[in-house]
């Protein structure tokens, strides 16, 4: 007689079954097309050496589910940190981007498009190369989108949008033009923004995208949720109360957005990368002077593991 599966397998199966059942039940109500995360608390969690949880890719893989997840992985301000720490974070970025683009079964099965948002020319060449390959390998996917913001600030995003729209507009035209030029322009507006580790600030992340439209279409902006758990501890189960709060809010305000689907052939612009540098062995030195702003700690840190199919703790 065959031995029964180990208790850990039963536990994993039960957790997965419950998760899919809850997703199916919650899908009867409004599902947020776009969820954003400010990942915080990784360094403090890493000291305890526990197993990180999974949330970002399972959200995108759920059917029906979230169509876009945007994560704040590295701020432009993080270049001001100690160089050894920055180098460690860059090494982790390379590892995780390679896993996502070449080894993740969820990315391949659910055709999850990986997009890198931010001023990628500030990144070291080897990180640019890994980011470029992650975008290139998934550029034909249109099932869902994982936006990884490295290196990013809202001020960069908005100033870049303004520079690309130098025509004269009336006030409404300016707003529409800037929205079309933001790096998230192909994505629906942010519905939920979660920050982990108990911090209560946005740290220059998606400042335009979370503001809504001033009530013109019953869109009061994103639901902001600040949770005490650190990012590696934040799992699907910790996200459930936030999703329920969103559904209650949407039903109460009658402001549910239409289901969002990505068009086939979503454009990919590789010219954002320093293509000459990617093919060159030249080293990279970050700029010595960067504008000041408050930023969250632990935006991109945690243990590296090729066994992880999903992006926590680093992504």
TrEMBL record:
<feature type="region of interest" description="Disordered">
    <location>
        <begin position="283"/>
        <end position="306"/>
    </location>
</feature>
<dbReference type="GO" id="GO:0016094">
    <property type="term" value="P:polyprenol biosynthetic process"/>
</dbReference>
<dbReference type="GO" id="GO:0016020">
    <property type="term" value="C:membrane"/>
</dbReference>
<dbReference type="InterPro" id="IPR018520">
    <property type="entry name" value="UPP_synth-like_CS"/>
</dbReference>
<dbReference type="GO" id="GO:0005783">
    <property type="term" value="C:endoplasmic reticulum"/>
</dbReference>
<protein>
    <recommendedName>
        <fullName>Alkyl transferase</fullName>
        <ecNumber>2.5.1.-</ecNumber>
    </recommendedName>
</protein>
<dbReference type="InterPro" id="IPR001441">
    <property type="entry name" value="UPP_synth-like"/>
</dbReference>
<feature type="compositionally biased region" description="Low complexity">
    <location>
        <begin position="283"/>
        <end position="293"/>
    </location>
</feature>
<dbReference type="GO" id="GO:0005811">
    <property type="term" value="C:lipid droplet"/>
</dbReference>
<comment type="similarity">
    <text>Belongs to the UPP synthase family.</text>
</comment>
<keyword id="KW-0808">Transferase</keyword>
<dbReference type="GO" id="GO:1904423">
    <property type="term" value="C:dehydrodolichyl diphosphate synthase complex"/>
</dbReference>
<dbReference type="InterPro" id="IPR036424">
    <property type="entry name" value="UPP_synth-like_sf"/>
</dbReference>
<dbReference type="GO" id="GO:0045547">
    <property type="term" value="F:ditrans,polycis-polyprenyl diphosphate synthase [(2E,6E)-farnesyl diphosphate specific] activity"/>
</dbReference>
<dbReference type="Pfam" id="PF01255">
    <property type="entry name" value="Prenyltransf"/>
</dbReference>
């Amino acid at each position: 007689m065959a031995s029964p599966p180990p208790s850990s397998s039963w536990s994993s199966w039960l957790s997965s079954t419950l998760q899919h059942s809850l997703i199916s039940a919650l899908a009867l109500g409004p599902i947020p097309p776009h969820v954003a995360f400010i990942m915080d608390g990784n360094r403090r969690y890493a000291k305890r050496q526990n197993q990180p949880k999974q949330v970002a890719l399972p959200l995108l893989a759920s059917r029906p589910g979230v169509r876009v997840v945007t994560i704040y992985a590295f701020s432009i301000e993080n270049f001001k940190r100690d160089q050894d720490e920055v180098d460690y974070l860059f090494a982790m970025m390379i590892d995780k981007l390679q896993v996502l683009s070449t080894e993740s079964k969820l990315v391949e099965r659910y055709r999850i498009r990986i997009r890198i948002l931010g001023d990628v020319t500030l990144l070291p060449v080897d990180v640019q190369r890994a980011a470029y390959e992650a975008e290139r390998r998934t550029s034909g996917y249109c099932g869902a989108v994982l936006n990884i913001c490295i290196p990013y600030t809202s001020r960069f995003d908005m100033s870049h949008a303004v520079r690309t729209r130098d025509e004269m507009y009336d006030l409404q035209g300016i707003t529409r033009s800037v929205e079309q030029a933001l790096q998230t322009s192909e994505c629906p507006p942010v519905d939920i923004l979660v920050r982990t580790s108990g911090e209560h600030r946005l740290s220059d992340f998606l400042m335009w995208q979370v503001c809504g439209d001033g009530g013109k279409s019953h869109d009061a902006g994103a639901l902001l949720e600040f949770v005490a758990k650190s990012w590696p501890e934040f799992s699907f189960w910790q996200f459930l109360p936030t999703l329920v709060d969103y559904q209650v809010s949407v039903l109460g305000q009658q402001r549910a957005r239409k289901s969002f689907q990505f068009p086939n052939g979503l454009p990919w612009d590789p010219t954002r990368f320093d293509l000459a540098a990617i093919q060159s062995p030249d080293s990279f030195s970050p700029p010595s002077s960067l504008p000041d702003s408050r930023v969250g700690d632990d935006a991109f840190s945690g243990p590296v593991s090729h066994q992880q199919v999903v992006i926590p703790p680093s992504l």
